[in-house]
Amino acid sequence: MPTDNRFRIEWPALVRDLVPALLRRPRQLAWLEALTNPVASLYEQLLTYRADVLRQLNYNGQTILLEKALNDTFDPAFRRIRIVNAVGEITPLYLNFVREQQPMPTAYFTQEPDYVPLYVYRQIEFNTQIDFIVYAPGLAGRAVALHTMIRRLKRAMTNYQILYISAPQ
């Protein structure tokens, strides 16, 4: 990403302009430019960091942008990483209170002598449900970095799974 001209500093020109005209000797200017080289190097690193941060801020948890971010970072040449939204979703079952005077869903409970209800879904079933699958062929060696980037960009309370195979067509 190119840097705006308003952030560009020409260090030799700045040194030459700030030194009084009586002291502008070639040896003096060379010495002052040598003194400003570390600052110029740090400034270039800052501009590179700024461009990188601005690029990363363009990514978010939307599927297409998350896929673009993963491909830009981990597979820029082949762009094989794909994200597929999961289709099998468990929908919560709503059981009415007695006060609501709605019919009880008898199909979901067993009529046992001790009247212990049989719950259809447990919390663990909702926790293991995945919202999307990331297909990342050939990136098993970079699993930690892949997980870190996905966790940083994905929406909160969404679960995912990474498969290190090619995405189905």
Characterization of the model:
The two termini are 34 Å apart. Helix 5 (143-153) links the parallel strand 2 (132-135) and strand 3 (160-163). This protein is mainly alpha-helical and 169 residues long. Helix content is 40%, strand content 7%. It has helices at 11-18, 26-57, 63-74, 123-127, 143-153, and strands spanning 82-85, 132-135, 160-163. The model has no long low-confidence stretch (mean pLDDT 85). The protein has two domains: 5-57, no CATH class; 63-163, no CATH class.
Task: Describe this protein with a few key phrases.
169 residues; single chain
Largest pleated sheet: 3 strands, mixed
Any idea how many domains? 2
Strand content is 5-15%
Q: Over the alpha carbons, how many angstroms does the gyration radius reach?
A: 30 Å
Q: Total helix count? A: 5
Number of strands: 3
Q: Which segments are poorly predicted (pLDDT under 50) over 5 or more consecutive residues?
A: none
What string, H for helix and E for strand, traces the elements in order?
HHHEHEHE
From the N-terminal CA to the C-terminal CA, the straight-line distance is: 34 Å
Q: In terms of structural class, how would the helical and strand content be classed?
A: mainly alpha
The averaged pLDDT comes out at 85
Tell me the overall shape. Answer: elongated
State the helicity in percent bands. Answer: 40-55%
Major sheet strand order: 1-2-3
